[in-house]
Design brief:
Number of strands: 9
Strand content: 15-25%
Largest sheet: 5 strands, parallel
Shape: elongated
Strand order of the largest sheet: 2-1-3-4-5
Helix content: 40-55%
Oligomer: single chain
Distance between the termini: 10 Å
Radius of gyration: 21 Å
Order of helices and strands: HEHEHEHEHEHEHEHEHE
């Protein structure tokens, strides 16, 4: 909820330079996957944005309003929406939103051309970070840490614990959110190889039977879970129900829902 309030907490500083009561009504466009795969995650984010609107934008009266746009988590629709917002640059002064990296990247192509400021409230994909590193025009603020940053933190924590010792690391991939999960796995694997960790990595599709079997056999020295929150809850239930007591680092990185 902190991340969703941050854009509007900073908004008065930005808006004070563009909001003139004698001029045209201005719009902050809020774009998200309403009705799409990430709809439930977006609903929680949008609630925070609405609370921010009530507390932060009331001082501007009718000078500036917020308007919701849905891209349904579809890249084609995201491009269409971005093109529409860029075409209304006299009124639209800021875009807030996006959850999925592929959708955000599709929209950013258009925003970079028209110089539209964008605040990404939930997108963590490394593709967005790499897009920024290319020096594209436009102002893009990515609030959550990217998958590159998250993978780096996880790698550093395990490196501090195990060094370059020969260990087995089970990495669980969430099949219901493969883009997010696989991106994190790829970044973590890249770091492990680049730093010559010597670790034996086992990327594995999330499967309760497999997890229970590996946990009870003591096959792994560490366990990573990259995916949706419901999978993290399921993992906790598996471990709690196991008859085998084990002590090993378990790192869970979820979508934050």
């Amino acid at each position: 909820s902190l991340a969703t309030r941050t854009p509007l907490s900073a908004a008065p500083v930005f808006l004070s330079s563009v909001c003139d009561s004698s001029g045209p009504q201005l719009t902050i466009a809020v774009v998200g996957p309403e009705g799409g795969r990430e709809g439930p995650v977006w609903n929680a984010i949008y609630q925070g944005i609405q609370e921010g609107e009530q507390s932060q934008l009331s001082a501007y009266g009718k000078c500036i309003t917020m308007k919701m746009f849905s891209d349904a988590g579809d890249a084609g629709r995201a491009r269409q929406t971005a093109e529409e917002l860029c075409g209304d640059g006299d009124h639209v002064v800021l875009v807030i939103g996006y959850v999925e990296t592929t959708v955000a990247n599709a929209a950013l192509e258009y925003y970079s051309k028209c110089g539209m400021p964008v605040i990404l409230v939930a997108t963590t994909g490394s593709g967005v970070t790499k897009w920024n590193q290319k020096g594209n025009s436009g102002v893009v603020l990515q609030l959550p840490p990217s998958n590159i940053q998250q993978a780096s933190h996880v790698f550093d924590a395990l490196a501090d614990t195990f060094g370059r010792s020969d260990i087995s690391v089970l990495i669980l991939i969430d099949p219901d959110n493969r883009d997010y999960s696989a991106d994190l796995v790829n970044e973590f694997t890249r770091l492990a190889i680049a730093n010559q960790s010597g670790w034996r990595l086992s990327p594995t599709r999330f499967d309760e039977h497999v997890i229970r079997e590996r946990w009870e056999s003591g096959a792994d020295d560490a366990m990573l879970m990259f995916g949706m929150t419901d999978k993290a809850v399921a993992l906790a239930h598996i471990i709690r129900a196991s008859r085998v007591l084990a002590k090993l680092p378990i790192v869970v990185v979820t979508d934050g829902a």
